[in-house]
Specification:
This protein is an alpha/beta fold. The protein has helices spanning 93-96, 99-102, 105-112, 117-123, 128-134, 152-163, 187-196, 213-222, 244-249, 273-282, 299-308, 325-331, 351-360, 377-386, 403-412, 429-438, 454-463; strands at residues 7-9, 15-17, 41-46, 75-80, 142-144, 176-178, 202-204, 228-230, 262-264, 288-290, 314-316, 340-342, 366-368, 392-394, 418-420, 444-446, 468-470. The strands form three sheets. A 13-stranded parallel β-sheet has the order 5-6-7-8-9-10-11-12-13-14-15-16-17, with no helix packed on it. It has a two-stranded antiparallel ribbon with strand order 1-2. A two-stranded antiparallel ribbon has the order 3-4.
């Protein structure tokens, strides 16, 4: 990797670099103290996260003005060789007497472990002791970079290069990378992670819409331990699969397997049934799958999913307008393994589909059917009688749900903790009173835009003391 990035590793582990500073002209830059002439540096341009807006006080016994509210755009964090000059050392007796410097190493490590990656890099610039502690391998199992990072590709390249210093060309400690909302993230970063981070287990890059299929294939092919992948909002991604080269190297019995268990493809608008079929065939160990607003999916895609991934426990197909009762019949084949199901705003779903789910998936804990206008009290009856362990239910904006369905829920689902009845026009005081008299564990109740009185709300609060009530009655506090 050294030749590729223009770096050479010296005998003392120092990094030299020919990469010039890359500072945006539109921001206010806060540069570190002048480093020794022999300590070459490489700059990573970072924008402060929300946590870094407040000053870092008590570091070296003083308030760092570089982190004050005057920071308006971006700051510079350096990955560099250890500070050697007296100017960069904490050498005075006054500084040694400060509280932060009297802390033992293991306490400082615990403090550093709470910092995001950009601030950890800044801490490494304070002195030699902090440099050694900040680059302790135990602190680098996770890289978490701010969402507005300007030069995210370069930042990941520099960081992985530094983490490969002790084990050239491979970073064995890094397991988690979170770069969500880094809109300038490109395939270049994923190729870097795939090449140098084989132990990667968790990758979150929600909202990074410049990512392509090929780069994702490279990561899942070269990171065999990857279990958690969040690519929500990556609108160019239409599939998850191994690269052709990876498939050829593996035996036929194992050549189609990817170890991903958690996959979030929310807002991957281009995903179609064919792509879901490929995902299911390769990611057979899936347990958590979120396909919200993947509007091109149909019941056929769900059939393939259940066929290849029988271990799915949580599934969301919210706002997938082509999913119907036939799709729920396929999902019902997951049986008792299914614990979480969201079919919100799937307008083709009726009591028939909910009956399939209730009959075969009796261990359900969470159901979201908001906006499914075809649901009636009969659907709630199936659900209440067959899923007594239900803890969370959302049937908001289901105008055909009335007090009768609510009474059935109250009589069978004693463990109900969260219930949304928002804009259920047929709900009245009678249904709420029965619910409150039986479901003492209720913690959240949404009755916004429901025709219920002030007395009914007070009745609920009196019987369910821990319940937070979301309502639109200005007289109730």
């Amino acid at each position: 990797m050294g030749a590729q990035n223009g770096k050479q590793y010296g005998s003392e582990g120092k990094i030299s670099s020919s990469v010039s500073s890359d500072v945006s002209s539109g921001g206010t830059d806060h540069t570190p103290e002048k480093t020794p002439k022999d300590a070459c540096t490489e700059e990573v341009i970072l924008t402060p996260s929300s946590d870094s807006q407040s000053p870092l006080t008590s570091l070296n016994g003083r308030t760092s003005s570089n982190y004050s509210s005057s920071v308006t755009a971006e700051t510079v964090a350096l990955v560099h060789s250890p500070p050697d000059s007296p100017k960069t050392h904490i050498g005075s007796d006054k500084e040694h007497r400060t509280p932060i410097n009297r802390l033992p190493d293991h306490v400082l490590l615990q403090i550093f472990a709470c910092l995001p990656t950009d601030q950890l890099c800044r801490c490494a610039r304070v002195c030699r002791r902090w440099y050694d502690l900040a680059w302790d391998p135990r602190l680098w199992r996770t890289i978490r970079l701010p969402g507005e990072l300007l030069h995210i590709d370069r930042a990941l390249r520099v960081l992985t290069s530094r983490l490969c210093q002790d084990t050239p060309n491979v970073c064995l400690m890094l397991e988690t990378v979170v770069v969500s909302c880094c809109r300038r993230l490109t395939d270049r970063s994923l190729y870097t992670l795939a090449q140098y981070c084989p132990e990667l287990r968790r990758l979150e890059m929600a909202g990074c819409y410049n990512i392509s299929n090929e780069a994702v294939f490279e990561v899942v092919s070269r990171c065999p331990n990857l279990e958690h992948l969040d690519i929500s909002g990556c609108s160019k991604v239409t599939c998850i699969s191994l690269t052709r080269e990876a498939s050829l190297k593996l035996s036929p019995a194992h050549g189609r397997q990817i170890s991903i268990r958690y996959l979030d493809m929310t807002d991957c608008f281009a995903l179609e049934d064919e792509g879901l079929h490929t995902i299911a065939a390769h990611c057979t160990q899936l347990t958590h799958l979120y396909l919200r607003r993947c509007a091109r999916l149909t019941d056929e895609g769900l059939r393939c999913l259940v066929l290849y991934c029988p271990g799915v426990r949580e599934l969301s197909v919210s706002d997938c307008r082509f999913v119907s009762d036939f799709g729920l019949r396929e999902i019902a084949k997951l049986e008792a393994r299914l614990r979480y199901l969201s079919v919100a705003h799937c307008s083709r779903i009726t009591d028939v589909g909910l009956r399939y789910i209730a009959k075969y998936c009796g261990q359900l804990r969470y159901v979201n059917a908001r906006g499914c206008e075809g649901l009636t009290d009969h659907g709630l009856e199936y659900l209440a009688k067959s899923c007594p362990r239900l803890k969370s239910l959302d049937v908001g904006k289901c105008p055909l749900v009335s007090d009768a369905g609510l009474e059935l829920l109250a009589l069978h689902c004693f463990h109900l903790k969260r219930l949304s009845l928002k804009a259920c026009e047929s709900i009245t005081d009678r249904g709420l009173r029965v619910l409150a008299a039986n479901c003492f564990d209720l913690q959240l109740l949404n009755v916004q835009d429901c025709d219920v009185s002030l007395g009914a709300l007070r009745f609920v609060k009196r019987h369910c003391k821990r319940c937070i009530i979301e309502h639109t009655n200005p007289a109730f506090f």
